[in-house]
């Protein structure tokens, strides 16, 4: 309150601020009152609706896709070349991706037997660029090749026999996947004797082989890599540019 003595006029007007003060105290007392059950329910509904839904919508399909892929893996392994050819025909821009509707038509053509819900989950997982398109190379490699994703933890790699000098894989580029898919049928027919041949070149038993010997072993089994294919495969398995490739990791990529 003002320190000066109130005059006649001020005393007349002083009742008005007093009224406001009374209203303020009344409002503050309302705010301090415990919330009723109805107000708490309203607040809960607002809080729940304001929570971001990204985690739920993105994580659910990824978690459930392993079951879906296991369901269709056998069918895809028998006809993946034809599926790849059909996808390439739809991929006019050669970007390694097609529209979701095109993939749905291809899945129906090759009797993948996916329900509407499963189709939604699988197309959400492989919409890698989040542009509404389906990355078919990544989808096929997950069913044909056993390659570790970049975000996988080190704990998952402990189960793989590692060389004495650990090598971390590089990026899974489309060119790398194309090269691996092309030679997959030949590798599947001769991987056991090929592994013995790799070991014969690996006199120190390090689990590693230099790139020239790696290419020579493949040539002995009538698998001839182009310069580009050799570059992309060695770029993946020799990220540190040591000129060495872990032949165990290379062969394991083809074994589901």
Automatic annotation (TrEMBL):
Biased composition (Polar residues): 25-39
Annotated spans, Disordered: 1-39
Annotated GO CC locations: nucleoplasm
Coiled-coil intervals: none
Single GO molecular function: calcium ion binding
Keyword Metal-binding recorded: yes
Annotated keywords: Calcium, Metal-binding
Compositionally biased tracts (Low complexity): 1-21
EF-hand domain sequence ranges: 194-224
Alphabetical list of InterPro entries matching this protein: EF-hand-dom_pair, EF_Hand_1_Ca_BS, EF_hand_dom, EFCB6
Superkingdom of the source species: Eukaryota
Protein name: EFCB6 protein
Organism: Ardeotis kori
Lineage: Eukaryota, Metazoa, Chordata, Craniata, Vertebrata
Gene assigned in the entry: Efcab6
């Amino acid at each position: 309150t003002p320190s000066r003595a109130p005059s006649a006029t001020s005393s007349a007007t002083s009742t008005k601020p007093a009224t406001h003060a009374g209203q303020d105290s009344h409002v503050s007392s309302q705010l301090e009152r415990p919330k009723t059950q109805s107000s708490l329910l309203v607040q809960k509904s607002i809080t729940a609706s304001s929570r971001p839904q990204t985690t739920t919508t993105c994580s659910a399909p990824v978690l459930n896709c392993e079951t879906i892929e296991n369901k269709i893996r056998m069918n895809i392994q028998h006809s993946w070349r034809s599926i790849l050819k059909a996808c390439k025909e739809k991929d006019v821009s050669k970007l390694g991706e097609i529209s979701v509707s095109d993939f749905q038509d291809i899945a129906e053509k090759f009797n993948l037997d996916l329900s509407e819900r499963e189709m939604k989950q699988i197309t959400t997982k492989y919409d890698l660029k989040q542009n509404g398109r389906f990355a078919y190379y990544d989808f096929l490699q997950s069913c044909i090749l056993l390659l570790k994703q970049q975000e996988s933890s080190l704990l998952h790699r402990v189960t793989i026999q590692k060389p004495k000098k650990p090598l971390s894989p590089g990026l899974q580029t489309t060119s790398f996947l194309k090269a691996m898919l092309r030679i997959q049928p030949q590798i599947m027919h001769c991987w056991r004797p090929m592994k013995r041949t790799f070991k014969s070149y690996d006199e120190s038993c390090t689990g590693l082989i230099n790139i020239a010997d790696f290419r020579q072993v493949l040539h002995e089994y009538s698998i001839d890599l182009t310069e580009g294919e050799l570059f992309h495969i060695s770029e993946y398995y020799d990220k540190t540019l040591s000129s060495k490739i872990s032949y165990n990791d290379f062969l394991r990529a083809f074994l589901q």
